[in-house]
């Protein structure tokens, strides 16, 4: 029996070993098929995609051309009561309605292609606008009021973000509006705190209001955009982390550390890049070849943005400080031809980007599905206005203890009234990774309503309000009212004459 069982046992063990070996060998020899590196498209699909992209590009350029003609008409016929941004947004809304009525989707899948992509905004449209604002900054008035501007832009924006975010969170807990968790509420409060007083600044320049008021609003808007983006990124960073086992105080400290790293790290990177550009163009004489000189300036203009984003810093903050430093140092190392070329090119590109942003902001009303909740929208508008008031009035009274040129109550009211919202809150709202999709649509729709409310209503009524409150400078009162023009493009002609 033992001799008969022994071969059977051996044969059974051999089968198990062979079966196991074959399994292992099979796993080694037959790996899982790799995914194709590129999507496979048929010739017809590629042709359809190319045609759709071509129609999208054509329509985008057509919208820009119509907007430029509209701005020209505003300048020519001296329609001083209508700022450019208000006119362009209104035109975008009108064209979006026309597209909806004639079912433009039959010619191109515009409803998907036209959608305002946040990546396109942050990578292509926003950097030229921010860099130009830093490069063309009147540094004398800016640095004379740097303390007040920083207080409004940094602490004021944080106050507004906490007021709006906290209000939304507690109203949601009380079942007054839709519920959002703490980090999502703070993210929305941060993005909606980004002010963009383009229409107000144009009116300030046209009426020659108090230069201090002009610089406080303009300077705050420059730094405020960067601070708002950093705060929103901070909230998103907290959302991605598992904060369930972390106390509220530890969460606050982590958020503060992340914000300080983003703010000062990005500012230092932008400053360093600007100084390096000044040294390079000082020791490498490119004045005899303006094309190479101009090309080097364009490279250094965009360089800090890409580097900052690549190392998880704020590209907007970096490119802003780079523009300020390059205008102060690098600009004087350029040939006269490149100086003029740089100024006019930056203003032209920034104008086109701003026009594109405001036009597509109007078009966006018809570009994606909305989730409109009337109570949520109304309470958010109330919180935005209240948060702006809590920001401006207490900080202004605090600053008056240290300022020689006091901020008057009329100036405080105009600063509060000039807190318009623009394309940055809208782009940030689309950039938020919120789940479920209904929550994302609610935030996006509410942001669009707030942006249009502030631009069309507040921006359109700023000029009569300033004249009603009699804030115009004495010299402006002696000017002919027909000479008033709100066009930012008028600066281009002035720059050429001065140069």
Description:
With 499 residues, this protein is mainly α. Helices cover 75% and strands 0% of the residues. The chain has one domain: Up-down Bundle (Na+/H+ antiporter like fold), CATH 1.20.1530. Helix 5 runs antiparallel to helix 14, helix 15 packs antiparallel against helix 16 and helix 17 packs antiparallel against helix 18. The longest helix has 36 residues. The protein is globular. The chain starts with a helix and ends with a helix. The N terminus is likely disordered.
In short:
This protein has 499 residues and is mainly alpha-helical. 75% of the residues lie in helices and 0% in strands.
CATH superfamily: Na+/H+ antiporter like domain
CATH topology-level fold name: Na+/H+ antiporter like fold
Q: How many DSSP helices?
A: 21
At CATH level 2, the architecture is: Up-down Bundle
Percent of residues in helices comes to: over 70%
CATH class: Mainly Alpha
Distance, first to last CA = 112 Å
Unreliable stretches, pLDDT < 50, 5 or more residues?
A: 1-31, 476-487
Q: How much of the residues is beta strand, in percent?
A: under 5%
What overall form do the CA principal axes indicate? globular
């Amino acid at each position: 029996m033992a001799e008969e069982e022994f071969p059977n046992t051996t044969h059974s063990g051999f089968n198990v070993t062979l079966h196991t070996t074959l399994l292992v060998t099979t796993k080694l020899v037959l790996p899982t098929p790799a995914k194709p590196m590129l999507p496979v498209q048929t010739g017809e699909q590629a042709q359809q995609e190319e045609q759709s992209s071509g129609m999208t590009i054509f329509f985008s350029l057509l919208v820009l051309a119509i907007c430029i003609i509209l701005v020209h008409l505003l300048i020519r016929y001296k329609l001083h009561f209508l700022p450019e941004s208000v006119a362009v947004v209104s035109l975008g809304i009108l064209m979006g309605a026309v597209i909806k009525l004639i079912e433009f989707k039959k010619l191109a899948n515009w409803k998907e292609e036209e959608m305002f992509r946040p990546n396109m905004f942050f990578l292509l449209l926003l950097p030229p606008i921010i860099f130009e604002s830093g490069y063309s900054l009147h540094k004398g008035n800016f640095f004379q009021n740097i303390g007040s501007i920083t207080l409004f832009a940094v602490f004021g924006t944080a106050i507004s973000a906490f007021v709006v975010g906290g209000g939304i969170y507690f109203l949601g807990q009380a079942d007054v509006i839709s519920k959002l968790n703490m980090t999502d509420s703070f993210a929305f409060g941060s993005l909606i705190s980004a002010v963009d007083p383009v229409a107000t600044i144009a009116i300030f320049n046209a009426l020659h209001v108090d230069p201090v008021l002009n610089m406080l609003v303009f300077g705050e808007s420059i730094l405020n955009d960067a601070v708002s983006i950093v705060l929103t990124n901070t909230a998103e960073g907290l959302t991605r982390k598992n904060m369930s086992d972390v106390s509220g105080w530890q969460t606050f400290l982590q958020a503060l550390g992340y914000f300080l790293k983003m703010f000062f790290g990005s500012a230092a990177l932008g400053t360093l890049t600007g100084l390096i550009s000044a040294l390079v163009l000082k020791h490498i004489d490119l004045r005899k070849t303006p094309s190479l000189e101009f090309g080097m300036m364009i490279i250094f203009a965009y360089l800090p943005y890409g580097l900052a984003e690549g190392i998880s810093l704020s590209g907007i903050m970096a490119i802003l400080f780079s523009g300020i430093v390059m205008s102060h140092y690098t600009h004087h190392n350029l040939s006269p031809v490149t100086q003029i070329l740089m100024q006019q090119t930056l203003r032209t590109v920034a104008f086109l980007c701003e026009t594109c942003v405001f036009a597509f902001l109007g078009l966006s009303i018809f570009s994606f599905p909305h989730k409109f909740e009337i109570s949520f929208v109304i309470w958010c508008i109330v919180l935005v206005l209240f948060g702006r008031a809590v920001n401006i009035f207490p900080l202004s009274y605090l600053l008056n203890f240290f300022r020689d040129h006091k901020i008057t109550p009329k100036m405080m009211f105009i600063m509060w009234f000039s807190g318009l919202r623009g394309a940055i809150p809208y782009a940030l709202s689309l950039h938020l990774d919120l789940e479920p999709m209904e929550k994302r649509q609610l935030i996006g729709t509410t942001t669009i309503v707030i942006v249009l409310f502030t631009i069309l209503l507040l921006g359109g009524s700023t000029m009569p309000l300033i004249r009603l409150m009699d804030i115009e400078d004495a010299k402006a009162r002696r000017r002919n009212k027909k000479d008033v023009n709100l066009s930012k493009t008028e600066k281009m002609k002035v720059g050429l004459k001065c140069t």
